[in-house]
């Protein structure tokens, strides 16, 4: 299906968590100055970029989306991810549990061994 349809998941609005299928559109130019016909397939999507939380350190970004398939290693990493965006309204987070279900919270994973000699 990847050649003709892209599968996605809604992360904002009323339908959060719903699977969606985005079909490729076949486009044929209608310019009469072109003496031949051709067709191209294009997906109606916007280009975006991804980076790890560690690589985002010292970045200021206008729009940030965080995808968490599992709990983050430490609360410091979550802080770095959240603090990269310049506006609260432009920050989105998607948290998935082990069953693939959407969640509205994540665990704060702290290694207790670190505090034994403190």
Describe this structure in words.
With 118 residues, this protein is mostly beta strands. It folds into two domains: 45 residues, no CATH class; 71 residues, no CATH class. It is built from one helix and seven strands. The strands form three sheets. A three-stranded mixed beta sheet has the order 5-6-7, with no helix packed on it. The model has no long low-confidence stretch (mean pLDDT 79).
Brief sketch in words of this structure:
This protein has 118 residues and is mainly beta. The chain is 7% helix and 25% strand.
Write the layout of secondary structure elements.
Elements: E1 5-9, E2 19-23, E3 25-27, E4 40-42, E5 64-68, H1 75-82, E6 91-96, E7 102-103
Parallel strand pairs: 5-6
Antiparallel strand pairs: 1-2, 3-4, 6-7
